[in-house]
UniProtKB/TrEMBL annotation:
This is Lipocalin/cytosolic fatty-acid binding domain-containing protein. CDD domains: FABP. GO terms for molecular function: lipid binding. The lineage of its organism: Eukaryota, Metazoa, Ecdysozoa, Arthropoda, Hexapoda. InterPro entries: Calycin (IPR012674), ILBP (IPR031259), Lipocln_cytosolic_FA-bd_dom (IPR000566). Residues 48-152, 186-290 form the Lipocalin/cytosolic fatty-acid binding domain. Belongs to the calycin superfamily. Fatty-acid binding protein (FABP) family. It comes from Dendroctonus ponderosae.
Amino acid sequence: SIAVIVQNTFHVIYNRLDRYIYILKNSKRCLFLYSCSLFPIKMVLIEGKYAHQKSENLDEYFKANGVPYIPRKMMCSTNPTVEISKSGDKWTITTTTMFRTVAYTFKLGEGYEEHMPGTVLKSTTTLEGDKLITVCVAPNGSETVRTYSFSDEGMILTYKHKESQQEAIRHFKRFLFPIKMVLIEGKYAHQKSENLDEYFKANGVPYIPRKMMCSTNPTVEISKSGDKWTITTTTMFRTVAYTFKLGEGYEEHMPGTVLKSTTTLEGDKLITVCVAPNGSETVRTYSFSDEGMILTYKHKESQQEAIRHFKRL
């Protein structure tokens, strides 16, 4: 009869619903696998090369780790390049800065050593989704965690000091195309200047020497031999050459004074920080292009800037 057919149909539907409810309650993994078959998962490419863009709270993080003032400031001033590669079951993370290149090769889940200045860390790296997570333990038991989070655009590297809970973040951009490096070495001829008299005046240069320096059309030559750089400046009055290593201090002898200077390389820029005996600080930034060089001077105390434009010879 119709009543019997309806009753049997109801029992079939009820039994099937009961089975589905059982699966949902007791086998979430089945549901996950089912959804995966319907919606393909897009995996982010981890391997590649990444260029540093900006940092947040880095000085505070290194301070929480007990890093002394000068090494801390040096590390905060770097713009590292990070390259991540994989061969078989071995991963390699290579970090390059103006001071050194460090590479660590490891297997996921297995311990390895990271040699830092003055200490050795016991580290383990795991892969969780699109993240590489490295846990480091110092000899005193202090623990830090580095988390590399990847996207199509780049990488975010998060540091966390477990004891103090201090965090820092460094943002990196993925290299999508071969990078064109601007040639820094070469000879450059002065074309024009902006605000030069005001800059020298802010530095306390007397009137006559100031006017003499503003009237010059210098030629600048930059060369490199091994890890030593030389910047030679020639004017109608004299030729001055300074040879230095990146990140190491040297002296610049100016009329009536001696400056303590340090030069670093950041991308296509050479940046020289000069400190006078009275503590006054100035910064020279050499920015390079295929056409030439722009030399920017900045007097920290007064914030006065000047610019000199040079053409590549």
